[in-house]
Write a structure and sequence with these properties.
Elements: H1 12-20, H2 24-46, H3 50-66, H4 76-95, H5 103-108, H6 121-133, H7 137-148, H8 153-160, H9 164-184
Helix pairs in contact: 1-2, 2-3, 2-4, 4-8, 6-9, 7-8, 7-9, 8-9
């Protein structure tokens, strides 16, 4: 059986072709393979809780299943994250999410001179999470796709529908912003 995979594990593309042919077991495999990571993606992109992220993941896979007959894409992963990204954009519009923190809130979080010199891992993660949250949407999106979801710059460009140079520019500015934020905390 040729499943377009070098091992015994079928590729996503092969599984999706099987789903298109009516194989529900292949759909279950795709869901189990990607649902957890997509939940994390939605959580980070939208700042939502895990239950809302699970609902969005379920909605995404429901859409994939109902439109399975029109699947013609060669790279399932990029196609999947493009669909997830579009759901995030719709959620942004729906919720009218803009900057979560005003400049005043950012200023109120600045460390005081009495802050201890050592910061534990939990504090670092908290500060990093906050630094990512306050990024402009366009920068936060490419940062999460590139560094948290570990997609290539080319894949990110396809997902957000912009040139690779724009993605690189957004990543640069996101990293500079995060670096400045972390520097405030002497991290």
């Amino acid at each position: 059986m040729n499943n377009n995979s070098t091992s015994n594990t079928p590729t996503d593309e092969y599984l999706m072709r099987q789903v298109t042919a009516g194989d529900n077991n292949a759909f279950d495999i795709l869901y189990n393979r990607h649902s957890r990571r997509l939940c994390g993606f939605f959580t980070r992109m939208l700042g939502c809780d895990i239950e809302e992220a699970k609902d969005l993941t379920h909605d995404l896979f429901t859409r994939i299943y109902t439109k399975r007959y029109i699947y013609k894409i060669e790279n399932f992963g990029t196609w999947l994250y493009s669909a997830a990204y579009n759901i995030c954009k719709n959620e942004y519009r729906h919720r009218e999410i803009q900057e979560r923190f005003s400049q005043e809130q950012m200023a109120s979080e600045e460390p005081t001179t009495e802050q201890p010199q050592t910061i534990d891992r939990e504090q670092i993660n908290y500060v990093l999470h906050k630094a990512i949250e306050v990024l402009p949407n366009a920068q936060r999106e490419v940062f999460i796709l590139r560094y948290i979801e570990e997609l290539s710059t080319a894949e990110v460009a396809k997902i957000v529908d912009c040139p690779e140079g724009t993605v690189k520019s957004r990543l640069y500015h996101a990293l500079e912003s995060i670096r400045k934020r972390m520097k405030m905390y002497k991290i």
